[in-house]
């Protein structure tokens, strides 16, 4: 359904945009119907930039993003694309205008996509979407944002996306601002959506969330894929030193860890030290079935120099 092929993003930064910042480099993966794919990495690793490119909020500098085989940048009608692909972001509060009732977000969808629909039919549609995210219409309709919890507001945004019968949801840190009790609700909701055949790109810096919710995991480091594969294999048998560092750092909440390139000879390189018959796909070695890993030193490890 969704396929990224060699996608890069270069931002122009600095005074007068005179410097280039490569936020994403040569990223390839796909998201299939009924599948949750987590994009995991520390702050600044390029996760949101990838989500924004998928949502056409910023163009890719290199590579292609296709949806059902069509290059999304060539889809002339944004409206047609957004009928199938929607995004929900971290801060639900910022998506509502405190002056208006929260259900105005639904009215905006009606205005844009269903201007002809009668009131009764529209009301049914709103209520069934709310039902789909386990919200009681009586408790949320007609209320102002400050009268609703963060979890309710977030679920209303997901309901809004579902009103369009979307096929792919980009969920960018949607759990981060929710309290523990609503987190699990929203996570279970994602599970329901997956069961209904939706593809979900789940952007998070939180490994435990990624592990809980996703079928496949893509670990991003400095804009490149360090490792990707079925979640149980990436978490159960992490091959890249960066993934291991991320996993090791989970219990040490108060200890600062450094994401440094491994010093020469310090760490075996899972890419360059692979068995001779290991299949290679661009810069990733397929260490086990569908479990891919990159060079430990972003191509500059000692093993890479020996092979060169
Ligand atoms: N519009 C922009 N212009 C210039 N640089 C940007 C822009 N957006 C992001 N960046 C830079 O691109 C890099 C990747 O940012 P991005 O927001 O994608 O990372 P992230 O992994 O989502 O981080 P976080 O978890 O903190 O949101 C960072 O160095 C960031 O400063």
TrEMBL record:
This is ABC transporter ATP-binding protein. Keywords: ATP-binding, Nucleotide-binding, Transport. Residues 2-247 form the ABC transporter domain. SMART domains: AAA. GO terms for molecular function: ATP binding. Pfam families: ABC_tran, oligo_HPY. It comes from the Bacteria. InterPro entries: AAA+_ATPase, ABC_transporter-like_ATP-bd, ABC_transporter-like_CS, Oligopep_ABC_C, P-loop_NTPase.
């Amino acid at each position: 359904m969704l396929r990224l092929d060699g996608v890069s993003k270069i931002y122009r930064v600095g005074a007068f945009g005179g410097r280039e910042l490569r936020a994403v480099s040569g990223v390839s993966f796909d998201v299939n119907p009924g599948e949750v794919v987590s994009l995991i990495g520390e702050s600044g690793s390029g996760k949101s930039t990838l989500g924004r490119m998928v949502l056409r909020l910023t163009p890719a500098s290199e590579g292609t993003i296709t949806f059902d085989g069509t290059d999304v940048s060539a889809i002339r009608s944004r409206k047609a694309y957004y009928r199938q692909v929607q995004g929900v972001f971290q801060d639900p509060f910022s998506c509502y205008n405190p002056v208006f009732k929260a259900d105005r977000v639904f009215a905006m969808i009606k205005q844009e996509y269903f201007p002809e629909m009668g009131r009764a039919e529209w009301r049914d549609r709103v209520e069934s979407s709310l039902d789909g995210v386990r919200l009681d219409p009586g408790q949320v309709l007609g209320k102002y944002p400050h009268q609703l919890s963060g979890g309710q507001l977030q679920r209303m945004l997901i309901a809004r996306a579902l009103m369009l019968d979307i096929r792919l949801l980009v969920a960018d840190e949607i759990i981060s601002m929710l309290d523990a009790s609503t987190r699990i609700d929203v996570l279970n909701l994602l599970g329901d959506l997956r069961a209904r055949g939706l593809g979900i790109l789940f952007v998070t810096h939180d490994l435990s969330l990624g592990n809980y919710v996703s079928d496949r995991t893509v670990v991003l480091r400095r804009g490149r894929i360090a490792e990707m594969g079925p979640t149980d294999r990436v978490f159960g048998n992490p091959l890249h030193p960066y993934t291991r560092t991320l996993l090791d750092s989970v219990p040490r909440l108060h200890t600062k860890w450094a994401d440094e390139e491994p010093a020469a000879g310090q760490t075996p390189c899972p890419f360059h030290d692979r068995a001779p018959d290991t299949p290679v796909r661009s810069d990733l070695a397929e260490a086990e079935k569908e479990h891919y890993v990159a060079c430990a030193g972003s191509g500059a490890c000692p093993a890479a120099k020996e092979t060169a």
